[in-house]
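Suppose you are handed only two things: the residues of a chain and a line of SMILES describing pyridoxal-5'-phosphate. What would the bound structure be? This form records exactly that question and the answer produced for it, so the two can be stored side by side and reused later without any lookup.

QUESTION INPUTS
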Amino acid sequence: MSFKNATMVWKNGTLLPWTEATFHVSVHGLHYGTGVFEGIRAYETERGPAVFRLQEHIQRLFASARIHSIEIPYSQETLEEAVLETLRANGLQSAYLRPIVFFGSESLGLLPLNCPTEVAILAWEWDLLLGAESAEKGIRATISSWQKFDSNAMPATAKACGQYLNSVLATREARARGFHEALLLNSSGNLAEGAGENVFLVKNGTLVTNGQADDVLLGITRDSVLQLARDRSLPIVTRSISKLDLFTADEAFVTGTAAEIVPLCEIDGQTIGTGQRPVTRELQQAYQAAVRGQDPHHPEWLAYAEKPGFRVQGLGSRG
Ligand SMILES: Cc1ncc(COP(=O)(O)O)c(C=O)c1O
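ANSWER OUTPUT
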């Protein structure tokens, strides 16, 4: 199984063994993608495992659900605690955590009539999305022949299940053509984002990224990088990014929870910059320090799995 060291799943308030956490094939979310989700990482720290920016991820989950009129039958605080509980129950020191909320089984018209809202949280050990060496070596990307869906069709700022068909098409095409990742342009011909990451450029010492108007998911890693750049007084501009901007950048990188911060070394065979990446490297180091609790400026970014006095004593129990 590729879900490394996953043993327990939080399902509607109960921790269940992985193999028992099942849903019926008639669930609305399976047929129409009517669900929202989050991708979160927990990191090993000196004080035990800690979840990075848990509150912001759960806030975005609720915002995504609101956009799609899915009522989550728990409070944000309950789901934050549930994520920590899932991490503890799996006994993982570092993990990828996947809360998902979707319409369950009751009817299969487009209107999710009387479908219950199902909530589940998975946890497993997941290596870096774009490969173990991606942070150091960088990746080769291609501009996808698939266009990023327009926010007038579906709001790109929500992290909704069905919309990921767009990213899956782009990823499969990119991999089939021998690239690590796809970059998608929006309907204006500007860059939107990677299939699963936001994009940043460095041009003449200024950090450039795009925003909501360019049909991107407002990434939490993006937000963290912007904050870390502000901490270091790096100049930042938020504006649309053209293909020309991409090809003439001094440095470029993608950001996402699963991928972290990954240099873009080549786009469609064209080398970006000189291969020197001082700004990218500085932000990568800053990010690694922050996620491991080594940045004294951002203690609020970490939610520790083990509260003081708490010891894991088996599956989900509290001592
Ligand atoms: C399409 C897309 N854009 C951007 C991101 C980056 O978001 P975050 O940094 O919150 O993981 C992701 C990752 O979830 C994504 O799927």
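WHAT STANDS OUT: The chain has a mean pLDDT of 95. The two ends are 31 Å apart (CA to CA).
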